[in-house]
Amino acid sequence: MTWNYVGRRVAMFFAVVLLAASANFLIPRFAPGDPTAAVLEQLMSRGQQVEGAGDIVQEYRERFGLDDPLHIQYFRYLWNTLRFDLGQSISFFPQTVSSAILDALPWTIGLLLVSTFIAFGVGSLVGALIAWPGAPRAVKALVPGLMMLSAIPYYLLALIILYALAFSSGIFPLGGAYSSYPRSFDFETVVDILYHACLPALSIVLAGVGFWALGMRGAMIGTLGEDYLTLAEAKGLKPRRIFFGYAVRNAMLPQVTSLAIALGTAASGSVLVEVAFNYPGIGFLLYNALRSSDYFLVQGIAFVLVLTVAIAVLILDLVYPFLDPRIERQ
Amino acid sequence: MANCKSIWRSSSTALAALSLGLVATSALPQEAEREDQLVFENISQRVTTPENYNPYLPSTLQHAGLQQVGQESLFYYNYESGELEPWLASGYEYNEAFDEVTITLRPEARWSDGEPFTADDVVFTMQMLKENAPALGGNSVDARTWIEEIEAVDEHTVRIQLTSANPRYILNTFGVRIYGTAMIVPEHIWSEQDPLTFSNYDLEAGYPVSTSPYQLTSSTTTETVWTRRDDWWASESGFKDLPEPVEVLFRTAGSEERRAAMANANELDTLWVLGRDNFEQVVEQNPDITAWFEEAPYAYLDPCPRYMAFNTTKAPFDDPRVRWAVSYAMNRDAIVDIAWENLTVPAQWMTPDYPPFQSYMEENADLFEQYDTLTYDTDRTAELMEEAGFEMDGDYWVDGDGNRVTLDLVIRQGEADQTRMAPVVSQLLQRAGFDATFQLTDIAAYTDALNSGRADAWLDVSCGGVSDPYATFELYHSRHAAPVGEVATGARTRWENEQFDEVVNQMAVTAADDPAMHDLFREGLEVWLEEMPAVPLVQAALLTGFNEHYWTNWPTESNNYVHPGHWWATALLLVTNVEKASAE
């Protein structure tokens, strides 16, 4: 791998982050609505009379610098972002954006990371087996089911699961991450957190398995015709070794690329799962931030997501030449 | 299948490990038994500000416990008794001109950190609000508007010199007229803080420090927990008994379906709004669920009738004849039947059907005959539209240039009753020849549509007077009007009428029980009805429920010690009155 290659990839990383950060800044501002007015409206909808709403809105616009010209706001935002100062949330004022994200992040990482890895692992294995000539017939029969699962959006699956396993049968809780906020980490609390995570995780896993399985199946079919597999068989290697060491290993490359991106976008992709299950993660936070036009919180969450994806892709770009010696290193 | 199970088991273990590794908690007291916990539903979808208990920041969520059990009010206006019940205060007195009021405080009241609650705290709080208006929200604007001067006469007496006569100042500011109250904060803590950024949240330091019987012990985005303080000043002094719930929790349900399921499972003791069908199903499955009335309509009458407002600066709705034409197009019985499942009644005007308003409405029956706000008559709509210069072209009204009369109705998403009313109202308008559409918008887009003038009309809640009509009239005073593009307040119709303003100005300085109020009411009502700046639709009945599985002595029609709004500051009166079911 040459320094030229590394330099180009790193430059691309910064360009992507800058572009995405600019889009984060502009898009929420083109949406209608004023964040402070939205907060006050929420109060009025509950019957609270708000004296001098116009004055209050103006005061908070000034305080957050929203009455400055757009280019001034933009450069201030870039400067603050460079220093990782994401500012204060408007709708959750005086909480900082960083602390709001840090509060939500553990739940999202706990739920989504594990669910995505499970979906990836199970899906890739099943997909590989479907394409493998020596696999049992029962596995091949899974194809229609997997195709259906991959076509159903996360949130729709979440609602179906919620209805069937929580609302109708009462087997699982209807939402939230715990029965009562954990006050100590004993066995009971662990079970309670797991119990609450089951359904949201199940909806993500089910929706994901189909996607990964079909992707893997396609990659495997491409790999099966390769000469090195014929050679491996001719050498008399064990089927298991050919399957894992030759076929799956090569077919996994595009899957790994997708996984890196999927991990980065997992939080934004499953916003509606968190909303459906009232799960206190980053997706739920983003949904609420968007609903109340909280520019700073939306910017902060989106920036963190962009950064995650960009870093994941950069790492992937730098690691790929080691994974696949055929890749051009120029 | 066995493989799937093992994968699921291992993934669950990994998930737990990750969750445990990542979720930090502070040392918290041991959880109480469920039978000692009173579980309120937090009517919002989440605790929006779990680390902010500053009652004066506009972003603060008041009804996740802060105003119900985390603070006490000087007074509580009880809708059922019609009395302003003293609590932290023992009484108040106006001077003859109603421009000065003296409040007496209970000498035995104490803050949760043991410091005495005194007149200095009240003076400090109100001055802090006045000096930091408008940044500290509606209460600060109210303080800036009304307080000329405030002083502590002695340790337990506060004198407030008002900027002008206001016989309703105590009710509006310190009496929970609707929903909230001005909460007094401890001077010895707040004087060292910047009130514009102070979060008032530090569990280890015992914040928020309050006089209430409950201390915040846990606060997350989905739940807050308040634990009883057995050294509450009111129980020690004999003013009140110690409330029975050891813990009060506020939990989110999020959706009506989840609410119903949680009610069936006895996971909630108070419930936010359920539709009639849902409520009846829940009661069938769990007989412990009750509401204000045992039989239909079940629900307590909300103080805020629902209505349709216009941007009265925008043609053709700047013409009172067109506004009346819309009123005649409204079949209110259909709205009650379809959108409200027959749980309420049509609204003749903008005040709630509460006893104090009965005489006002009866005395003006002749006016309502002349300006009939309840009649559904599309022929009358046609007459008025033709009179205003419009003609029918096919199914729709058009102006002289052949442009259709369109009506863009904006609806706040998340408000169940308004969401149900929107299609009915639009359909009625369509039938009467208006090219009406409705759009459900989130809260930010809704305010933008109103402020920018993009909305022709919208549905809203008319929260005004509860004991006399002044506050309802005041919503239409022209001081609330503003040019399109700026924030209009009050009823937000941008309607201006000098004669009406004059009546409101006189009402403002007339005591609620003064017979002159009736003459002023008639005078103002006549102007209002002639102009019809907004269209009254229905009285609002919010079908909220209580659960008697763990707790009894909830307020009902036959046990009406207070009105039942459990998201209001008056909910402290519920908490201090409920009794443990297992003790019976």
Strand content of chain B: 15-25%
The average pLDDT score of chain A comes to 82
- Average pLDDT taken over every residue of chain B: 91
Q: Kindly identify the CATH topology of the domain at 103-293 in chain A.
A: MetI-like fold
Output the number of helix runs of chain A: 14
What is the CA-CA span between the terminal residues of chain B?
50 Å
Categorize the overall geometry of chain B: globular
CATH architecture of the domain at 103-293 in chain A: Orthogonal Bundle
Summarize the structure.
The complex is a heterodimer of chains A (330) and B (584). With 330 residues, chain A is an all-alpha fold.
Structure description:
The complex is a heterodimer of chains A (330) and B (584). The longest helix of chain A has 38 residues, at 187-224. Chain A contains 14 helices and no strands. In chain A, 75% of the residues lie in helices and 0% in strands. The radius of gyration of chain A is 24 Å and the shape is globular. In chain A, helix 5 (97-131) packs parallel to helix 14 (295-323) and helix 7 packs across helix 9. Chain B is 31% helix and 18% strand. A 5-stranded mixed sheet of chain B has the order 18-17-19-14-20. In chain B, strands 1-10-9-8 form a 4-stranded mixed sheet, with no helix packed on it. In chain B, strands 4-5-7-6 form a 4-stranded antiparallel sheet. Chain B is globular and about 75 Å long. The chains are: A mainly alpha (330), B alpha+beta (584). At the A-B interface, helix 2, helix 3, helix 5, helix 9 and helix 13 of A face helix 1, helix 3, strand 10, helix 7 and helix 15 of B. Chain A: The chain crosses the membrane at residues 107-132, 152-173, 193-214, 259-277, 297-320. Chain A: Residues 105-320 form the ABC transmembrane type-1 domain.
